[in-house]
Amino acid sequence: MIIPFHKPYIGEEEIAEVTETIKIGWITMGPKTQEFEKIFSEYIGAKYAVSVNSCTAALHLALRAIGIREGDEVIVPAMTFASTAEIILYFKARPVIADVDPKTHLLMPSEVYRKKTKKTKAVIAVHYGGQPVDMDALKKITGNSIRLIEDAAHALPAYYKDRLIGSNGEIVCFSFYATKTLTTGEGGMLTTRNKKWAERVKSLRLHGITSDAWKRYMATGTWKYDIREMGYKYNMTDINAAMGIAQLRKLQKMMELREKIAEKYNEAFSKIEEIIPYVVEENRKSAWHLYPLRIDVNKLKITRDEFVEKLKQRGIIASVHFIPLYRFSLYKKLGWCYKDFPGSEWIFKRTLSLPIYPGMTDEEINYVIENVIDIITKNRK
Ligand SMILES: Cc1ncc(COP(=O)(O)O)c(C=O)c1O
How far apart are CA 73 and CA 122, in angstroms? Predict the structure, then answer.
């Protein structure tokens, strides 16, 4: 049996929506993109939702919107994907890497407090694996002078207390990349409650030209537009948006299916002494984009890397989220060193991500469970 790390949950609904878009003939940003933004903002309960072609683009535009400049500092967690930090470098600003909590893999407010300086202009909170960061605690530290941006690439849908992530954040960035909980192939969305930021991002995603310029080929549009500032080619297309519309309709079902898999894994692994449970805090609801499996390497004869390899030999493709930022040459050159990140190092040595996607059958889930347990049993110290 081969179990890939991820399989998108795509069916006739997406094919029908995309086919309709192609038949209508408006294939780049247009009516479907507008519709997707509208239903996304309604679902999330966000005041404004602006679509883009990736979460990386959304994060980049978020920093443009809040006015990051050369020499500014932006705090990010060590346990994240490259995008979260590289967008800071686009501005010649400084990514300040903070350690994460070994229980939850989430940015620790105490670390943000420790690392903030007079130059800190923003914090990017990453809702790792779909579990929200403690936003109230963070807000107390950032106050009114530091902007709080949420990297919600994994967190659709996720709840902090009873609030859906994206509903009331300053700026929240989602990803619709192929492996994400809602996919458009590539894509992203930025939500905000700030009208000025929403309008600026709408303009910046399309070369900085006036926001409705995409209508210029429609009977209702005009060829005239102004360019107020330098922008980018970051718009979503109607083909992607059509897929997003179909995916959003089944988001709840996809969520419930992932949740069931997480529950089965949790239940099976809770009896195994060599597995250290991943903690979801009481007042959070994870989107379960990732299922982190944490093996107690002190009690095993094999390393995390060898564990991943043994799963692969049995047809199970696991992954690792993430290689902490400070381990990359780029960030080492900027002065970051593993010694400053005990929490992230602890996680990195012990954690792998197991397959968790809505289309997994009971047989496949059981196969993963049996093999994880079998590898542990055969490799106990
Ligand atoms: C935490 C995090 N942030 C941002 C991104 C970037 O998303 P995108 O590929 O849509 O740019 C990813 C992608 O995997 C991610 O995991």
Answer: 7
Q: What tens digit of pLDDT does each residue of 161-217 get?
A: 999 999 999 999 999 999 999 999 999 999 999 999 999 999 999 999 976 777 777
pTM greater than the 0.85 cutoff = yes
Give the Cα separation of 33 and 136 in Å (integer): 32
Lowest mean pLDDT among 216-225, 237-246, 286-295, 296-305: 216-225
Ligand 1 center to 178 CA (angstroms) = 10
Q: Report whether residue 104 contacts ligand 1, using a CB cutoff of 6 Å.
A: no
Residue 113 has pLDDT above 90, yes or no: yes
Q: Is the CB of 8 under 6 A from ligand 1?
A: no
Closest ligand 1 atom to Cα of 175: 10
181 lines ligand 1 (CB under 6 A): no
Using a 6 Å cutoff on CB, does residue 55 contact ligand 1? yes
| Atom of ligand 1 at shortest range from CA of 179 | 14
Please write the tens of the pLDDT for every residue from 210-246. 767 777 777 778 888 899 899 999 999 999 999 999 9
Instruction: Report whether residue 129 contacts ligand 1, using a CB cutoff of 6 Å.
Output: no
Nearest C-alpha neighbor of 77 from the set 6, 118, 119, 131:
131
Q: Which domain holds residue 261?
A: 252-378
Do 192 and 103 belong to one domain? yes
- For the question of residue 271 being annotated catalytic, the response is no
Is the same domain home to 69 and 197?
A: yes
Q: Give yes or no for residue 371 having a pLDDT over 70.
A: yes
Task: Provide the number of structural domains found in the chain.
Answer: 2
C-beta of 307 in contact with ligand 1 (< 6 A) = no
* 225 in any annotated domain: yes
For ligand 1, the distance from its centroid to the CA atom of residue 83, given in whole angstroms, is 6
Residue nearest atom 7 in ligand 1 by C-alpha distance: 55
Centroid of ligand 1 to alpha carbon of 175 (angstroms): 6
Concatenate the DSSP letters of all residues of 204-251 into one string. Answer: HTBTTB-TTGGGGGSTT--S---B-S---B----HHHHHHHHHHHHTH
- Which residues lie across from 172 on neighbouring strands? 150, 191
Cis peptide before 95 (omega within 30 of 0): no
Catalytic residue (choose from 32, 180, 202, 285): 180
* Domain final position from 249, 283, 316: 249
Catalogue the E-assigned strands of 133-187.
Answer: 147-151, 159-160, 163-164, 171-175
Residues 40-98: pLDDT tens digits?
999 999 999 999 999 999 999 999 999 999 999 999 999 999 999 999 999 999 999 99
